[in-house]
UniProtKB/TrEMBL annotation, chains A, B:
The lineage of its organism: Archaea, Methanobacteriati, Methanobacteriota, Stenosarchaea group, Halobacteria. It catalyses: S-adenosyl-L-homocysteine + H2O + H(+) = S-inosyl-L-homocysteine + NH4(+); S-methyl-5'-thioadenosine + H2O + H(+) = S-methyl-5'-thioinosine + NH4(+). Catalyzes the deamination of 5-methylthioadenosine and S-adenosyl-L-homocysteine into 5-methylthioinosine and S-inosyl-L-homocysteine, respectively. Is also able to deaminate adenosine. The gene is mtaD. The keyword Nucleotide-binding does not apply. This is 5-methylthioadenosine/S-adenosylhomocysteine deaminase.
Length: 432, 432
């Protein structure tokens, strides 16, 4: 056994208690071997966490990571206009190299802000898998399949490609890449395709992830056509299951909440995106109270505009209170749970908790900052005061991905330069 | 003339255009002498802004800066419970040294996140003035006067102290300290005190700043008692004027909005605090459309939980869209305007714009970050992607307060240690 010890810090435990402890990691299996009293470990290597807070690596449970290339390209627009006028025309010009560059940029950003795992639905997914492998993070990846705007043959090709990617890439990158089947949304995929492909995914036990109930425009047409709420329709299609999860769930009624709880289907909350696109406020406290599993995601950088899960925790707590009309709603422990164990469970990773046996995915936060002073309550700080830039080290699968703010697996300068060049050429093509 | 040139950066102009330029500062007057083509300045000293974005120093137009000592001490509670159970009992134990330590902590935090000026309503204000002088920032300070919970004599003493502070300290710290008269709120100050003291403040041309319409609980009792909306009552008391400004304005109706526009009284929007305390969503786009002057503030760190105006700009844009149900509302230019020129005008400083003649209050942002890549739109980045930690230099009144992230006027370690000790002793006293 080769070991790494994270020493000298205070450790956030699964029960949200925080106490001084050292974390012993088995770097061969990439799991936590033990969490022990300070000063008791004898490891091959040490990572200094003194004066810091050791937390589970955050899990970004819904993003489109390569959309970092779109960051700031189209803000302050309504969702439909934004997609049709700004996003889709540029996406039509995407090349594999763009996705690779955008994914590298997004993953660099996530590592720097303490995120060790993410769920991604996009295009050219083998490129994303390659960057995940190189960067050392963990990801659940799916090829986003859509029928809107495609002829029948092209749509079938797209869906077959989605299943093929899921089968071929699952378990690659030493098991850090897992896959999923990702039909885009309830309104952008024709019913017949759900009827044909969902059973195929279920046959192979492939998790399904999709967008649902993000805006009222995604609810009303389905109610009109099927005389069912969207998630009743989704259930009828076989989309709701324990190994599956949906993004957004902003406009859900009580019957749909009950259905999600019954099926144990997780909702991934994307508060920043929901605010920025004026989609609405997800009833997160209601979901939690009903026993619906809830995870947290940034959505793509085009509607956020960053991939910083600390922002997202704060946003979740803030908007959760507004949605409930109650300052007690979505409290700090709930927000932390959502971004760690909640997201990890939704995505299907044994991460999001610092405990023997779990994946050794963690971040060390430097507490020696004016905005983290005084220290009445470190859990509160995690949600309401810590910034992504306070993360000192990031570890995933037992490997140090960032040490003292220096990336260890990616060349940051190269990543930034490459993304700039790629974005410029991509937008030039789209405008040509 | 002694000069400092900020060179090599791109400069955000008052019309929101951004172009490469150098900023020449007259350090004797503390004002901007000229904004010129790159490479043309000949100055006594230079501050390197290459690869950076030069923006006006942000103006935090409503805070209680010493409340940094309360950060994280009581979260996820309703406003009334929070005040009565958590805040007021501790505030009863406050000593001058606590306010000095808390103010130093908050000012350090603000300088580090590009804020150069603030408006502060609290207690022991000579202590705050002393730290403002030492730290080199700019502030409009007022002694928060209140009648609730006080006997008549104590209340009069409090109000007289408020006027005396405003008269005595105005123009100190080489003019960087300006003052105001700050009756706490429409519901925590007895009408007779407004009738007596507002004319005295007006006589001496002292600006007035107060809390109003923050929660529904602050609206309903006034409507009941006076059969007037709160801001009609405020107008009747002589509180609405061009040199005066109110904090929050969450629950305002159309008549009140009209009144604010007529009186040219600024509303200071505090989105983070309004979300965290579930107070509601201020109709910011409606205020702007009606021509009401709008500034931006963090409120105290106990309800935020930081003093980072970049967070606040993002929050303002986000919640502004939700409140309007329109993703086009409170766009990036509006949010930037609010945090710079809008706040500066409300507070009464000739800051918030980079232009010859204005105060030399500015911040330089390091753009060479993954989360600020690519660069489709730097104004969008300012609101949706820049973090306080991206600020490289901060300049106020022509003096460099932070250079390459190093504070120049405060000893950060000492500030943090002092705040920790003070907070511990304060809370020990309160719990005794």
């Amino acid at each position: 056994m080769d070991t790494l010890a994270v020493t000298g810090g205070e450790v956030l435990r699964p029960d949200h208690s925080i106490d001084p402890a050292d974390v012993l990691i088995d770097t061969v299996t990439g799991t936590i071997d033990a969490v022990v009293e300070p000063g008791e470990v004898d490891a091959d290597r040490e990572l200094d966490a003194s004066g810091g807070l050791v937390v589970p690596g955050l899990v970004n449970a819904h993003t489109h990571v390569a959309m970092t290339l779109f960051r700031g390209s189209a803000d302050d627009k309504q969702l439909d206009d934004w997609l049709q006028e700004d996003i889709w025309p540029v996406e039509a010009e995407l090349q594999a190299g763009d996705v690779r560059a955008g994914a590298a940029l997004g993953i660099a950003e996530m590592i720097r802000s303490g995120t060790t795992a993410f769920a991604d639905m996009y295009f050219f997914m083998p490129e994303v898998a390659a960057v995940v492998e190189e960067a050392g993070v963990r990801a659940r990846l799916g090829h986003g399949a859509i029928t809107v705007g495609k002829d029948d043959e092209a749509a079938h090709e797209d869906f077959r490609a989605g299943l093929e990617f899921a089968r071929e890439y699952d378990g690659t990158a030493d098991g850090r890449v897992r896959t999923m089947f990702t039909p885009h949304s309830l309104t952008t995929v024709d019913e017949s395709f759900y009827r044909e492909y969902v059973p195929k995914a279920r046959e192979d036990d492939i998790p399904i992830h999709f967008h649902a109930n993000e805006t009222e425009n995604e609810v009303d047409p389905l109610v009109e056509e099927y005389d069912q709420r969207p998630l009743e329709y989704a259930d009828d299609l076989g989309l709701l299951a324990e190994n599956s999860f949906l993004a957004h769930g902003v406009h859900v009624d009580d019957r749909e909440i009950e259905l999600l709880a019954e099926r144990e289907t997780a909702v991934i909350h994307n508060p920043a995106s929901n605010m920025k696109l004026a989609s609405g406020m997800a009833p997160v406290q209601k979901l939690l109270d009903a026993g619906v599993p809830v995870g947290l995601g940034t959505d793509g950088a085009a509607s956020n505009n960053d991939l910083d899960m600390f922002d997202e925790m704060r946003d979740a707590a803030m908007i959760g209170k507004l949605a409930a009309g109650d300052a007690r709603a979505v409290d700090a422990p709930a927000a932390v749970e959502m971004a760690t164990a909640g997201s990890a469970a939704a995505v299907g990773f044994d991460s999001g908790r610092i405990e023997a046996g779990a994946n050794a995915d963690l971040a060390v936060i430097d507490l020696d900052k004016p905005h983290l002073t005084p220290r009445h309550d470190l859990l509160s700080h995690l949600v309401y005061a810590v910034k992504g830039s306070d993360v000192r080290h990031t570890v995933c699968d037992g490997t140090v991905l960032m040490a003292d703010r220096e990336l260890q697996t990616l060349d940051l300068e190269e990543v930034i330069d490459d993304a700039r060049e790629r974005a410029e050429a991509l937008f030039d093509r789209a405008q040509a």
